[in-house]
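Researcher: I'd like a structural prediction for the single chain below. Treat it as a standalone chain; there are no partners to consider.
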Amino acid sequence: MVLTLHHLDQSRSQRLLWLLEELEVEYEVKIYLRENGVAPKSLRDVHPLGKSPVITDGDVTVAESGAIVDYLIKKYGKGRFQTPEGDEQKARDDLYFSHFAEGTLMPLMVIKLLFSTMYTRSPFFIKPVASMLTGGVNASYVDPNMKRMFALIDSYLAKDGGRQFIAGGDAQGAPTAADFLLIFPLEAGIGSGRLPDDATATPRIREYVQRCQERPAYKRALEKGPKYNYGPKL
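Model: Treating it as a single chain, here is the predicted structure.
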């Protein structure tokens, strides 16, 4: 039974395509297209929550990006895409940013998106109130926290004289789990303008994203899925 990625267009599951291409494992992609901006109900046939990404590997079904990345690297990585054995600091960095990407950075980006959507879809006479409420939360909480998060990422990329990848890469200089998870919120941040406009504030992030996007496996992944608005053309 072939390993299958259940892939939703314009979603964070694009990074799973990148990982699968890096692993050079045999797999197939089942593509789902959004309906009115959300995942189709047919995804519930794969997993009860009807969300993507999800993989099926024989009789095993794995959901959640972090769990999928961990599963794939452990089962198919053959020792690759993990920090060098014995380097505990880089192993901790890899573990931290693997959880940071989904547990800390993405929730704030989703809040920002929801606020923007709420304002856009509000009736004309409600827009001033919506702007006041969302603008206040953004200014006092969301934006300052996101700025600190991007600065943190940039500072880690500056470690060891300049890291190619967020935790330093594996023994062959390839990405590790944290990179596959971190790429989507950073691409979305750049594409949506949420990353600070002043590139000098976080210069290494943009270079890092470009470096990931230039990998042959990343380019092959773009060809496997439907249109992805956050790709290297940005």
